[in-house]
């Protein structure tokens, strides 16, 4: 397991749809992150109100949508949680998401892209508040990060350059970091 989500294990509603997070998001008081790919922005939200907006994000070089698997360079749409934080990443800071979530695991099992054992590993980790295995055919290591020592000109030019993550420039990831905690809701739409 990559990391524990602490008290988030109880946020899974067994009666709700897979991946539904109760107590997080538009109706909650806790801050959460909205990645609005149509507005090209990452927005720190408090309930339904924006607190801070980070413009000019970069996403996967294949765009956004339903991620099919490792190496597709697509940023996955959906609702996730922050699974771990690396403040010494090659990308300056890396805020890891709990991808693949149950929605992606269910879809992959139905289409025979993963077997029942892999599905169960993902389901158990996610349901128990842990980051799902990052070594499945669905991919992993999806997160929000900076540029690090990369070329800021590529990012500033509006090129989608990541392998499936959401990228901010280095000053933006530093400004976002104090707000982020493990277990925080992240919605990519």
Percentage of residues in helical conformation: 10-25%
Number-wise, the strands total 10
The named CATH superfamily: L,D-transpeptidase catalytic domain-like
Succession of helices and strands? EEEEEEEHHEHEHE
User: Regarding CATH, which class?
Assistant: Mainly Beta
Terminus-to-terminus distance: 27 Å
Average the pLDDT over all residues and give the rounded result: 87
- Beta-strand content: 25-35%
Put simply, the count of helices is 4
The major beta sheet can be summarized as: 8 strands, mixed
Question: Which architecture does the CATH hierarchy give at level 2?
Answer: Beta Barrel
| Rg calc | 16 Å
Written overview of the protein:
The protein has an eight-stranded mixed beta sheet, covered by helices on one side. It has a single domain, classed as L,D-transpeptidase catalytic domain-like. The chain is globular, with a radius of gyration of 16 Å. With 189 residues, it is of the alpha/beta class. Helix 1 packs antiparallel against helix 2. A hairpin with a 4-residue loop joins strand 1 and strand 2. The longest helix has 12 residues.
Summarize the structure.
This protein is of the alpha/beta class and 189 residues long. 17% of the residues lie in helices and 26% in strands.
Keywords:
8-stranded mixed β-sheet, 4 helices, 10 strands, alpha/beta, L,D-transpeptidase catalytic domain-like, 189 residues
Itemize the secondary structure elements and their pairings.
Layout lengths: L30 E6 L4 E6 L2 E7 L8 E2 L9 E2 L1 E12 L2 E6 L4 H9 L5 H12 L15 E3 L6 H5 L9 E2 L2 H7 L8 E4 L1
Parallel strand pairs: 1-10, 4-5, 8-9
Antiparallel strand pairs: 1-2, 2-3, 6-7, 6-10, 7-8
């Amino acid at each position: 397991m990559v990391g524990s989500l602490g008290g988030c294990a109880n946020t899974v509603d067994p009666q709700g749809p897979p991946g539904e997070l109760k107590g997080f998001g538009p109706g909650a008081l806790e801050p959460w992150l909205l990645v609005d790919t149509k507005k090209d922005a990452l927005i720190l939200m408090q309930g339904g109100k924006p607190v801070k907006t980070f413009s000019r994000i970069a996403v996967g070089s294949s765009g956004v949508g339903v991620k099919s698997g490792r190496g597709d360079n697509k940023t996955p749409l959906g609702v996730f949680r922050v699974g771990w934080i690396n403040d010494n990443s090659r990308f300056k800071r890396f805020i890891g998401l709990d991808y693949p979530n149950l929605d992606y695991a269910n879809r992959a099992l139905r289409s025979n892209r993963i077997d029942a054992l892999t599905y169960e590993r993902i389901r158990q980790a996610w349901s128990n508040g842990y980051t799902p295995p990052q070594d499945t055919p669905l991919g992993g290591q999806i997160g929000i990060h900076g540029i690090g020592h990369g070329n800021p000109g590529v990012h500033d030019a509006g090129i989608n350059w990541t392998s499936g993550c959401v990228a901010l420039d280095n000053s933006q990831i530093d400004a976002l970091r104090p707000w982020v905690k493990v277990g925080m809701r992240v919605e990519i739409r």
